[in-house]
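Backbone-to-sequence.
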């Protein structure tokens, strides 16, 4: 079993960049090919050995709760029609050994606040945070969160997933800097939320995967509103860094920023091109597409 048992999915953001699609459903329920974003993330956590999935939900909570609930009527109907393959797909959304916990974030006060809402479910142990709108795909290798669990097990400290970005984009991310320790691994000496390119300490951006020690909750309890007037997880990590060593891990794999329309479209195209059922047909379609 993994040393990290609990995965937290903050899915209570307003998703304004996807309106009107996100008027009644959470951004994380948007589908990439045939699966909602949230399920890519929950499968990543389960494959890495986590057995408790904590969803921090907001005003559009119903579809998420329903997606992780048993669908008696649908399952009975598929059974009666002998659609065993489809029944398996539905049943596998939540494998039998997995516990799901839903916690309401009553106001979208920021990612840091959403993570703090998970405290009663996480308790006093390290945990993972996965932002499902960052879809990370590592073909044929360990998933991003599995790679980070491996780092945690060796270093016994918080680990933040990072990626090199164009410095002109620094104001969209938390940005980190610190000395390189090993291949792909650095120490976090500085972390700043959404700095301007001139203020960015490096070109290393925080993406939506974290393994955090429970000491983060004490820091979050006193974190004031920061960038965008939101309670920022980055600011609490900056405080935690003063008392614990924190690691930045530049993961192996491709990341699609599905919180943006272009990243979401790219994910759909690339995942479709890997999809057993439709790769061939879709590739042919793209080849014959007149782009002029
Ligand atoms: P984003 O910064 O992408 O914000 O949140 P958003 O509200 O979801 O989307 P836009 O920018 O308005 O289009 C990053 C992650 O943090 C969660 C979101 O659901 C997303 O997974 N989040 C953010 C919360 O759970 N609660 C919050 O108060 C804010």
């Amino acid at each position: 079993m993994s040393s990290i048992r609990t995965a937290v999915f903050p899915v209570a953001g307003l998703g304004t960049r996807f309106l009107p699609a996100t008027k009644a459903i959470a951004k994380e329920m948007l589908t990439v090919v045939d699966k909602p974003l949230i399920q890519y993330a929950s499968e990543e956590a389960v494959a890495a050995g986590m057995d408790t999935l904590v969803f921090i939900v907001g005003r559009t909570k119903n579809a998420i709760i329903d997606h992780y609930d048993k669908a008696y009527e649908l399952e009975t109907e598929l059974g009666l029609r002998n659609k065993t393959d489809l029944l398996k797909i539905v049943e596998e959304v939540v494998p039998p050994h997995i516990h799901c916990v839903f916690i309401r974030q009553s106001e979208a006060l920021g990612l840091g606040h959403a993570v703090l809402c998970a405290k009663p479910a996480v308790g006093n142990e390290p945990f993972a945070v996965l932002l499902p709108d960052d879809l990370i795909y590592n073909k044929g290798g360990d998933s991003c969160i599995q790679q980070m669990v491996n780092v945690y097990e060796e270093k016994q400290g918080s680990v933040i997933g990072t990626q090199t970005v164009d410095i002109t984009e620094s104001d969209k991310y938390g940005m980190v800097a610190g000395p390189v320790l090993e291949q792909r691994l650095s120490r976090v000496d500085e972390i700043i939320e959404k700095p301007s390119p001139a203020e960015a300490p490096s070109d290393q951006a925080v993406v939506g995967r974290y393994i955090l020690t429970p000491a983060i909750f004490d820091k979050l309890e006193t974190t004031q509103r920061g960038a965008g007037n939101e309670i920022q997880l980055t600011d609490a990590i900056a405080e935690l860094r003063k008392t614990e060593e924190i690691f930045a891990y530049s993961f192996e794999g491709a990341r699609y920023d599905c919180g943006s329309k272009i990243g979401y479209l790219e994910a759909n195209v690339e995942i479709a091109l890997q999809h057993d059922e439709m790769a061939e047909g879709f590739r042919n379609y793209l080849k014959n597409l007149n782009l002029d």
